[in-house]
UniProtKB/TrEMBL annotation:
Keywords: Lyase, Plasmid. This is Dihydrodipicolinate synthase. Its EC number is 4.3.3.7. GO terms for molecular function: 4-hydroxy-tetrahydrodipicolinate synthase activity. Belongs to the DapA family. InterPro entries: Aldolase_TIM, DapA-like. Signal peptide: none annotated. Pfam families: DHDPS. Transmembrane segments: none annotated.
Length: 306
């Protein structure tokens, strides 16, 4: 089956990783989770093998299984974006080739963790060029918060766009509204999209002009993200503000400290909603205390999603 084409815009939820008590992948629940997301009217794609699916704990074979399962389960309904999470360029190239063969429609390229010690522009450019030479799929840059070493300088992003024709979008996690607006105004075009992942200020980033949302929270509230995206596109400020107010409560539930638990909290939300049978996470992550689960439930009630 030829993968559906994808223009790297719109609302793109990222899947979670259902697990059994022994930490093995619960494929049956994963298939249901994929269906739940694909059933949301208005989404444009689904991302797998990202932070939300605990990709750092997954082997190459598990990542291949998750991608192939997604393509088999919902790939005829929505495009599948696969994360490229690797600490070496060689492994990133291997993952990219696997993803294209498995049926992905685009690739979300994470920065190698070695860049946490700092990087030179030519390192970043060579990494993306090697991936682009290994696959014909569109590439999405993953931009980390600008205060973190894993982020790319504004000029580096410009060089990537100019030098690698298959780079078609950026997942903007810069956590800086000024840098985010700069990216929209200076780099966004008919062939390059800025996708916000700023759940704390989705409304603002969409109003500035981001062409879509790529977020782990979409695993649970993709319907609200679609409503917000469409309201902004339709210039309906009243509806957009009302939806943003509901999203605000879910943001308080999912994105509090410590940040490492954000997708852990989304799993608990899925259990509360009756969508997943358990909230098991792989160590070093640990199950949340009962008091925090109750806090999540209360905030979901405030958001009118529970």
């Amino acid at each position: 089956m030829t993968p559906p084409s994808f223009d790297c815009t719109g609302v793109i939820p990222a899947s979670l990783l259902p697990l059994h008590a022994d930490f093995s992948i619960d494929i049956e629940s994963y298939r249901k989770h994929l269906n739940d997301m694909a059933d949301v009217r208005g989404i444009s794609a689904i991302t797998v093998n990202g932070h939300a699916s605990e990709v750092s704990s997954c082997t190459f074979d598990e990542q291949q299984l998750l991608l192939e399962t997604a393509c088999d389960q919902v790939g005829d309904r929505v495009p599948i974006v696969s994360g490229i999470y690797a600490d070496s360029t060689a492994e990133a190239v291997r993952l990219a080739r696997m993803a294209e063969n498995a049926g992905a429609s685009a690739l979300l390229v994470f920065p190698p963790n070695v860049f946490a010690l700092g990087s030179r522009p030519e390192m970043v450019l060579a990494h993306f060029t090697s991936i682009a030479e290994a696959t014909s799929l569109p590439l999405i840059i993953f931009q980390f918060p600008v205060k973190e070493p894993l982020s790319y300088g504004h000029d580096v992003i410009g060089r990537l766009i100019d030098s690698v024709p298959t780079i078609r979008a950026m997942k903007d996690g810069s956590s800086d509204p000024v840098r985010s607006e700069m990216a929209v105004r200076e780099y966004q075009s008919d062939t390059f999209s800025v996708l916000t992942t700023h759940s704390a200020w989705l409304l603002q980033s969409l109003v500035v002009g981001c062409k879509g949302i790529l977020s782990g929270a979409g695993s649970t509230i993709a319907n609200l993200q679609v409503e917000l995206f469409e309201a902004v596109r339709g210039h309906d400020l009243e509806v957009a503000q009302a939806v943003a107010a509901r999203i605000y409560s879910t943001t308080q539930a999912f994105y509090c400290s410590p940040g490492v638990d954000m997708h852990n909290r989304m799993k608990e939300a899925q259990v509360l909603l009756g969508r997943l049978p358990s909230s098991v996470v792989r160590p070093p992550l640990q199950k949340l205390p009962a008091a925090e689960v109750e806090r999540i439930a209360e905030l979901m009630r405030v958001a009118q999603v529970l």
